[in-house]
Amino acid sequence: MTLVVDSSVVLAFLLGEPGGERLSQETGPLLLSTVNLTEVLTADHAWAALDVGLEIRLIR
């Protein structure tokens, strides 16, 4: 599965702001469990997402 999102949507998701809710609905609970919502997405989080079969592509 590939998730293509705008980087601002990812930041909204990570910060718990409006717009991030849609991302969580699209990715499901697996991504939620791998991302600390108070931190910027790190390499460790990216590897965890890949481990569950999720590819994240950021578009600017």
Automatic annotation (TrEMBL):
Gene3D superfamilies per the UniProt record, alphabetical: 5'-nuclease (3.40.50.1010)
Superkingdom of origin organism: Bacteria
Protein name per the record: PIN domain-containing protein
